[in-house]
Specification:
alpha+beta; elongated; three-stranded antiparallel sheet; 5 strands; two-stranded antiparallel sheet
C-alpha cells in the first residue's frame, strides 16, 4: 500500500518516513513480508491441551481425564485451564474441570450423565 505524499509547510513533499533533514529513517526492528508472518498461536501449553482433548475424545461418557499436576513441570494449573478454555471455546466443545491437590480432571459437559458442576473451562 502506497503512502500518500504530503506537502510540508516549506513546500517540499515527504512521505512521512524521512527525517526532517532529508536523511533516510532509522529503524529499530527488522522488516518482514506479511506472508512470512506466522498466523497461528502455538503456546507452551499446546502439546498438553492436544493430549487432553485426544484423551477426552476417546473416553466413555462416564469418564474424565485425570492429569497429574506433577506433569505440568512447574506451570500453574490456572494457565493450563486458560489454554484449554481458549481452545474448547474456539472449537465449541463444552467441557468441565475440577482439581484437587494432585490432579486436574477434565470431562465432556454435554455427555449424558455428566455434571457441569466443576469450575468450568
Amino acid at each position: 500500500m502506497k503512502k500518500k505524499s504530503r506537502t510540508t509547510t516549506n513546500g517540499s513533499k515527504e512521505n512521512g518516513n524521512a527525517n526532517k533533514n532529508g536523511q533516510s529513517p532509522t529503524f529499530h526492528f527488522a522488516a518482514v513480508e506479511q506472508f512470512e508472518v506466522p498466523h497461528g498461536r502455538k503456546g507452551k501449553h499446546r502439546t498438553m491441551v492436544v493430549r487432553i482433548l485426544e484423551d477426552l475424545k476417546n473416553r466413555t461418557d462416564d469418564q474424565a481425564v485425570r492429569i497429574p499436576l506433577s506433569s505440568l513441570q512447574g506451570e500453574k494449573v490456572q494457565n493450563l485451564r486458560s489454554a484449554l478454555n481458549r481452545v474448547t471455546r474456539l472449537k465449541k466443545l463444552p467441557i468441565a474441570t475440577a482439581s484437587d491437590e494432585k490432579y486436574l480432571y477434565v470431562w465432556n459437559a454435554n455427555r449424558k450423565g455428566s455434571s457441569s458442576n466443576g469450575d468450568g473451562a
